Amino acid sequence: MHHVTHALRKQVKPDTLNQIEGHVVECKFESQFAKPGERGTIKAKASFNVSEDVAALRKAIEGIGTTEKTLIEILTHRSSSQKQAISKSYQETTKRILVNDLKSDTQGNFERVLVALARPPAVNDAKWLIKAIKGAGTDNSILIEILSSRTNKQIKELSAAYSEETKKTLIQNLKSEVSGHFGKAILLLAEGARDESTNVNADQAKVDAKALYQAGEKKLGTDESKFIEILCKRSIPHLRQTILEYKNISGKTLQKSIEKEMSGNLEELLVAIVKCVMSTPAYFAEKLYKSLKGAGTDEITLTRVMVSRGEIDMLDIRAEFKKLYQNSLHKEINSDVSGNYGDCLKMICGGED
Q1: Dihedral (C-alpha) 272, 276, 277, 280: value to the nearest 10 degrees?
Q2: Beta-carbon neighbour count of residue 244 at 10 Å?
Q3: Taking Cα atoms as reference points, which of 307, 312, 302 lies closest to residue 332?
Q4: How many other C-beta atoms are found inside a 10 Å radius of the C-beta of residue 187?
Q5: Rounded to an integer, what distance in angstroms lies between the CA atom of residue 122 and that of residue 161?
Q6: What is the DSSP letter of 35?
Q7: Cβ-contact 308, 158 below 8 angstroms
């Protein structure tokens, strides 16, 4: 677009020019390169006033009967950093902790979603992992969901929050909980050391695709460690290319091969990584669909996904949901959950598609 002539520049008003240039860039890169937070439905409020929000929250919580609408309105229309400012000021003014007041004032799923909205994302991830590890037997599906879908930066932040909460490191605690090939893969992901280079070397992708083919389909028995090394360490753009090359070599998708060659937690983890590599929003759209469509609604998963993706890529998740299930996420939530909890989820969803 550097070739827009001076003559054209003179004819076109500057802002229109930016739109033309912006549009070309947008068509080219779509949302894949949107900055973090640009594809979320929960955004920073422009005319943000901390003391006004604190006063409104106090009135909603301290008044006779809680005004749920106010709680939903504020917690779904402020960015994380704005909500941290609110929490800090709330504590300074009342000598109470906002999250605790929300807990004592609301209950059930509505309480859970409000509390999660009020906490920093890294703290949420840490709390969810603590719960997954602490229960009777580890809840591996939560470990898988969080560790396969978060960026290195998010993993570093949740690890710090985890250490602060538990006084132990996430790695230490995981070591005593997970074992075998699955454990090895989970620990690699928990290090948050995935390669982040954006350059894709097509030849290296071919080499990796061939190595995966040799380690699985072409072998009697499976060399799991090869799958783990490639899928847990290589960069996302590189893995995208590797998945394409794999299909050329084997005639099958990598996901199908993993499902055929592996079982149990390791299979679930590697499939989740492949899905997130191809499209994290599609991975979460499927999670949401299953949480709404299963026998009875799985509110715990529903809440976790809606809150954790609300500020990141909810717009893309909605688009994928519509594409995959011919129905809007908003409609599905509306027909499945009701009351304040449903209202709050619809606010996070942000709109009808």
Answers
A1: 170
A2: 15
A3: 302
A4: 17
A5: 6
A6: P
A7: no
Cβ(114)–Cβ(71) below 8 Å: yes
* Tokens found for residue 147: 């560790």
Helix (H, G, I), strand (E, B) or coil at 5: coil
> What DSSP string runs through 128-180?
HHHHHHHSSS--HHHHHHHHHHS-HHHHHHHHHHHHHHHSS-HHHHHHTT--H
Q: By the 8 A CB rule, do 215 and 176 touch?
A: no
Q: What is the dihedral of CA 8, 13, 17, 22, to 10 degrees?
A: -170
**pLDDT over 90 percentage in the chain:** 83
pLDDT, block means (10 residues), the chain with 353 residues: 42 43 38 64 96 97 88 97 98 98 96 98 98 85 97 98 97 94 97 95 96 89 93 97 97 96 96 98 98 90 98 97 97 96 97 88
Q: 167: alpha, beta or left, given left = phi > 0 and alpha = psi -120 to 50?
A: left
Global model pTM greater than 0.90: no
Measured from the Cβ of residue 349, the count of other Cβ atoms closer than 10 Å reads: 26
Q: Dig out the tokens for 16 from the structure.
A: 């229109």
| Total count of residues recorded for the chain | 353
Residue entry with tokens 């709050």: 344
Q: Both tokens of residue 111?
A: 């309480």
Residue among 98, 7, 80 at smallest CA distance from 43: 80
CB distance 317 to 311 below 8 Å: no
